[in-house]
Write a structure and sequence with these properties.
The complex is a heterotrimer of chains A (252), B (259) and C (289). Chain A is α/β, with parallel strands linked by helices and 252 residues long. Chain A is 33% helix and 26% strand. In chain A, the strands form two sheets. Chain A has a six-stranded mixed sheet with strand order 6-7-8-3-9-10, sandwiched between helices. In chain A, a hairpin with a 2-residue loop joins strand 9 and strand 10. Chain B has one domain. Chain B contains eleven helices and no strands. Classes of the chains: A alpha/beta (252), B mainly alpha (259), C mainly alpha (289). Chains B and C meet through helix 3, helix 8, helix 10 and helix 11 of B and helix 5 and helix 6 of C.
């Protein structure tokens, strides 16, 4: 059996409810998942399903109440587990007083890249995300799409083996989405493992090898996209709506 | 350490690219130069009022720079969500705190150095004396004090939600300590028990920032401080900084990253 | 209809603003007297500037002590009045002031003991020409509160001491314009005429006027300013003695003796003068009145 890049074992996350009268709220219920090397894995679910909480556990932002999570076989509690990952969060406004080049140099320094290696990587990435011509411009002058692409570049600065993308195309125009999708395809072709959440189910269907659908913290379905489509005889959007129990109101 | 230095570099770049420092420096320079151009009874040898005004403006500016720069660091990371890609890298929350502290402290030191060079030029041009060692001691002690202030504000920034409330509260606290800190023991003696003991406890608990204000020694050309005293004051400040950063780390570790 | 050009509208609005301003300006001047003041400080701060004047006067005193000064927690021990700022060593005011300024007790704890390394802990007064350093604060204090008379007297005292007699005279005149009934300023002005210009006539006139002002304002008061009265009377008495008017001198010293904390010393001078009167009868006509 191949080594799992991402592995969740009986992961459970509980929060204190905002309204103290309600006790504790279960965000993730005993979730088990495996993502293998080289896969593009789609993590789907409606808002509040527990996707972001699961990602936050993987990234070490939130501690699990019980169960465990591993990246490359290392418990996510260890900062070293994040040495080989890249993360693109949703809707981030990077340090607006820095240029794209300075931002990437900053992250390169965190990974301990040598100056020469950092220069090479920055050139490569700025070319990849098509920001070479504006590399010396402060980020505050960038459009939303450009900011998202600089975010993608920072996620790739350490040439990660695993990319975690949280709604990478949210809020982008069609051209912006297409560019990000192209980059994901290129990374996939380079053999990177990609774990990403999205509400754009058409996009997920195009890009992902496997998907998991969760609702109210529970895993509802998991499998190859082709298998799911074949099994339910419907496209991913319909499958998704059916699994989460949404009945469309059709007017006569 | 590389991570901490990288984080501090971003803070320094931020200060260099924001207008706060330049505005305060220009304001200090203009007020000092205007006051310096005033003719008081045709006596060109009068200098101490100018040193007094200049140092007062330097103290106010340095506090404003230290408090406002530090107060926005962690909240801005959370608000713009840059804290997420940062902590998704092999960076611990403790390193974030250390990096932010070092960046703010170094940025304050750079700003302070520019202010003191200006002060040295102004006072030297009038007095025709250059007591470098005394100026260095004044600079060092003020910078050391700013380290404690940065530590306090950093702790405030993970406790209070809004940077503005943090900055206001800490400004009042710091000015309060500088103005009243050394007299709290006298106040304690005049209070009935148990208030007296309480005030005395506060007196021993607060960092005595007023020690680091040696403006009078500089303005009135008083004796130079002993280096041992300078060293002890530095150790005292370092102990408070360590305690404050440790407390900040403890609070920040439990803090939700979302605003 | 064709829209008017934006520039035309802008010029029209500017013309309206200008017309309204020229129409309102004379009226606005009546609304607020502050606007008519020649002083920028008065214009900016209004009567609130008097609050700051005291601060700057104290600042001058702090400067005079090179930063050694009691805080608000030692206020009961703080120097009262401004006479110590012009008192010479050995004078009673100076001795009293030395006692007042002994406000630093033994340190109560290690924090206080260590903290004293970083502050001025020795009571000294400016000397050797450094007294000039208090002048800016006094100038600012006078600008903020022109009715505060000791600002003028203290500044003039040190200006004279620094050899800036003309500046001292001008400053005292400024003080008199703002405080025409001040016997303190008149007394200081008399000292300037007497000690610096050696102009006995003008000094006598000014001191006589000072005495009349003192009687007009202070006599009959429960806590009259006897110290100032004694100083005026003694100085005027000595001037008259120098001019040979012994009887007048005796009369003035008699007045001073009643107000003096050390009447015996004055009595000795009076006795001495009386002897002079006996030995040498007064001239038939006085050199002055």
């Amino acid at each position: 059996m191949m080594d799992a890049i991402v592995e969740l074992k009986n992961l459970r996350v509980e929060f204190k409810a905002q309204n103290s009268g309600q006790g504790r709220k279960v965000a993730v219920k005993d979730l088990n998942l495996r993502v293998e090397a080289g896969e593009v894995f789609g993590f789907l679910g409606p808002n509040g399903a527990g996707k972001t909480t699961t990602m936050n556990v993987l990234l070490g932002f939130v501690n699990a109440t019980s169960g465990s999570a591993f990246l490359f076989g290392v418990n996510v509690c260890e900062p070293i587990a994040r040495q080989r990952i890249g993360y693109l969060p949703e809707m981030t406004y990077y340090y607006k007083f820095l240029t794209a080049e300075e931002l990437l140099r900053f992250y390169a320094r965190i990974f301990g890249l040598s100056r020469l290696e950092a220069d090479r990587r920055i050139d490569q990435l700025l070319k990849l995300v098509e920001l070479e011509s504006v590399r010396k411009r402060p980020i505050k002058t960038y459009s939303k799409g450009m900011q998202q692409r600089v975010g993608l570049a920072q996620a790739l600065i350490n040439n990660p083996d695993l990319l975690i993308l949280d709604e990478p195309t949210s809020g982008l125009d069609p051209i912006g989405r297409m560019k990000v999708r192209e980059i994901i395809q290129r990374l996939k072709s380079e053999g990177k493992t990609i774990f990403f959440s999205s509400h754009e189910l058409g996009e997920v269907e195009t890009v992902c090898d496997r998907v998991a659908i969760i609702n109210q913290g529970e895993l509802k379905a998991e499998g190859r996209v082709v298998d799911l489509v074949e099994k339910h005889q419907a496209n991913l959007e319909k499958i998704f709506l059916k699994i989460i129990g949404y009945e469309p109101q059709v007017s006569a | 350490m590389n991570t901490v230095l990288a984080l501090s570099g971003v803070v320094i770049k931020e200060m260099c690219r924001r207008k706060d420092f330049y505005v305060l420096f220009v304001l200090t320079a203009v007020i000092t130069l205007v006051m310096g151009s005033v003719n008081f009874f045709g006596d060109a040898k009068i200098v101490r009022y100018l040193k007094d005004i200049c140092l007062l403006l330097i103290w106010i500016s340095a506090l404003v720079i230290a408090i406002t720069t530090t107060a926005r660091q962690i909240p801005a990371e959370r608000e713009s969500r840059t804290i997420f890609p940062l902590l998704a890298k092999p960076v611990s929350r403790g390193q974030v705190i250390l990096g932010k502290f070092l960046g703010c402290w170094l940025a304050c030191g750079m700003a302070l150095l520019v202010f003191y060079v200006f002060f040295g030029v102004i006072s030297g041009s009038r007095e025709h004396e250059w007591p470098f060692l005394q100026y260095f001691q004044a600079f060092w002690l003020q910078w050391t004090m700013l380290g404690v202030v940065v530590g306090m504000v950093l702790l405030g920034s993970v406790v209070f939600t809004a940077p503005s409330s943090n900055a206001t509260i800490l400004f009042i606290v710091v000015v309060g300590i500088i103005a009243l800190g050394r007299h709290l023991n006298q106040v304690a003696l005049q209070q009935p028990e148990p208030l007296g003991t309480l005030v005395y406890a506060v007196y021993f608990l607060i960092p005595h920032l007023e020690w680091y204000d040696v403006r009078d020694l500089v303005i009135y050309n008083q004796h130079q401080l002993g280096w041992l005293d300078c060293g002890l004051a530095t150790v005292y400040a370092a102990a408070y900084v360590a305690m404050l950063l440790f407390a900040t780390g403890m609070v920040f570790r439990r803090k939700s990253l979302n605003l | 209809m064709r829209k008017p050009a934006p520039y035309f509208i802008l010029v029209l609005l500017a013309a309206v603003c200008f017309s309204v301003a020229t129409y309102l300006e004379p009226r606005v001047a009546d609304w607020n007297k502050r606007g008519q003041s020649g002083s920028v400080l008065k214009l900016l701060l209004g009567d609130g500037r008097r609050l700051f004047a005291n601060h700057f006067f104290v600042k001058a005193d702090v400067s005079f002590h090179s930063g050694y000064y009691p805080s608000i927690f030692d206020q009961r021990k703080a120097p009262k009045g401004s006479r110590h700022m012009t008192a010479k060593e050995g004078e009673p005011e100076e001795e009293e002031h030395e006692r007042q300024m002994n406000f630093l007790d033994q340190p109560k704890d290690w924090i206080e003991r260590f903290g004293r390394h970083f502050m001025v802990t020795e009571h000294t007064h400016l000397q050797g020409g450094d007294e000039r350093e208090i002048l800016p604060w006094l100038r600012v204090s006078a600008d903020l509160d022109p009715q505060r008379v000791d600002t003028y007297t203290v500044a003039a005292y040190w200006l004279r001491d620094l050899g800036k007699v003309k500046e001292a005279e001008d400053f005292l005149h400024e003080g008199l314009r703002n405080n025409p009934n001040s016997y303190e300023i008149l007394f200081e002005l008399g000292r300037l005429y007497y000690q610096n210009y050696h102009d006995i006539v003008r000094a006598r006139n000014v001191w006589e006027l000072a005495l009349r002002k003192w009687f007009g304002q202070e006599s009959g008061k429960k806590e009259a300013d006897l110290l100032q009265f004694e100083q005026i009377a003694v100085n005027l008495g000595r001037l008259e003695e120098q001019a040979g008017n012994y009887e007048r001198s005796v009369a003035l010293l008699e007045l001073a003796r009643k107000a003096s904390p050390n009447p015996a010393a004055l009595q000795l001078q009076i006795d001495d003068l009386k002897q002079k009167i006996v030995v040498r009868p007064p001239p038939a006509s006085s050199t002055s009145r």
